[in-house]
Amino acid sequence: MITCKPVHLADRYDVVVVGGGPAGLEAATAAQAAGAARVLVVDREKEAGGILLQCIHTGFGLHRFGAELTGPEYAQRVLEQTLEHAIDVLTDAYVLDVDETKRVKILSMQEGLKRVQAGAVVLAMGARERTRAAIRIPGARPAGVFTAGLVQRLVNLFGVLPGRRVAILGSGDIGLIMARRLTLEGVAVTGVFEIMPHANGLNRNIVQCLHDFDIPLHLSTTVSEIHGHDRVEKVTVAPVDDQMRPIPARGWDVPCDTLLVSVGLIPENELSQQLRLRLDPTTRGPVVASTMETSRDGVFACGNVVHIHDLVDFVSAEAELAGRNAGFYVTGRQPPADNVLLQPGENVGYCVPQTVSTEREHTVYLRTRRPLEACTLRLVEPGGSFVYEKKLRYVFPAEMVNLQLRPRLLQNFHGGVLRVEVVPR
Amino acid sequence: MTTTSDKSMVQTSTYLCIGCPLGCRLEVDEDVGTHTLVEVRGFSCKRGKEYAAQEHVAPQRTVTTTVAIAGAAWVRLPVKSSKPIAKSRVQEVCRALRAVHVCAPIHLGDVIVVDVMSTGADIVATCDMPVLGSTGGDAKCNAS
Fold first, then answer.
1. CB A204 to CB B65 under 8 A?
2. Mean pLDDT, to the nearest integer, of A42-47?
3. Pick from A78, A60, A57, A56: which is nearest to A69 by CA?
4. Does the ipTM exceed 0.85?
5. Which of A244, A423, B67, B101 is most buried, with most CB under 10 Å away?
6. Are the C-beta atoms of A159 and B66 separated by less than 8 Å?
7. CATH number, residue A398
């Protein structure tokens, strides 16, 4: 982890990036490469690098760097590249507000409260974890209920264990990774309970985090009650019916002193809401054009604040695009506006970006609603005819599908709306 | 999972590749008589093919954990094994690493333990940890 040099804040920046995780750092570098002379990254932690710093496991960078890296290794590569570009990185600092004229209000240990004028803003605040409260688990409210990412931070950065005997609710990747991590630290992991009939994390993590250590995964099962006065003493788990309601008669108790909840991430969009950006009800992030520009002129967004990614490699690619377009924006070289609206159709939860141009090449990220084997991804005109079809071996909701959309594919399409579907063959 | 076909005396085992998020379903055919691999199927890259063969014969994993560090901004230093080690030895290696203490400064790639538990792999740092409040130089270390 590289300590950033202290920066003296200027009054004006061409591009201000909110958040110094992989998305923010990559966006800053790309903005400068695209012509933005003065770029500032603001991060609330004492070191930039974001959540990667606590992701000490491997599996990052296969797409981006052609090497299997750990989170800290990936973060260091990105940060080194940013610092080579003479970009100001201000840590221990919060962006409190961004107004319509792109004045950014920053609170920092170093400078106190300061306003800087930005030519363009890139939002890269990432996401936060859904909590016990978000999924309303009944029962007592003792100590010992943690989100999985918080435990990852406690264990990997602070060397603190959350307890001795742990149950995990939710089979998201962070929960699976923590099942292994805690086992390796000598903590007993009694099982992972997933309300859906399929695992939420990547298959590779089911294998290397659960199977390797004989940790059971209970599908279609949830925690129906938490017990304990001062500290968690046990949880009651129960299978769920097809309406996802627990069936108490078939439930059982799991003794444990700790419950980890790994039930998803929510894009952190307080600033987006203050700016009154249009948000997508499914991603809960800003609606973005193919340039990663939000509904407000000159405000761009990238990374988990837009939609939850399963690979940082794709975050980097998306951030590079956002940063480059922010750089183009401040140097007056914006590409023509998008002319096609993408609509999620059958078995597609969402698409990002929400609009594309028939003139340019795009990567469209989408998430399916349910798993399918041997299926077809297709783009459908409002009239019902297929503009494009692609065969897929399988899709899982846990794995983002990415579609390379080249102008050639849309050369015979002249409408304004395309529906995206993933259907059985 | 393993299935045997009596006629050919070929045993098929299936594995799920952990090489990348694609998670390919791999099949390995082994000749039961000679204990040699006949065929590997289901991979989409060279790494997957190698993984299937290795997983069938002797599964290996790269170990990632942390060791204690003094004099840096953080109290834990993230580390990994320089190459995969036998899966069966992962837990004992992690246990042994709980006793390791180092002092800042540490650089990415620095070897923390040579040939850990005679596995043939070194334990290396996976990030820089400069001395707290400095841009480099030597630490005053009070670690045991």
1. no
2. 93
3. A60
4. yes
5. B67
6. yes
7. 2.60.40.10
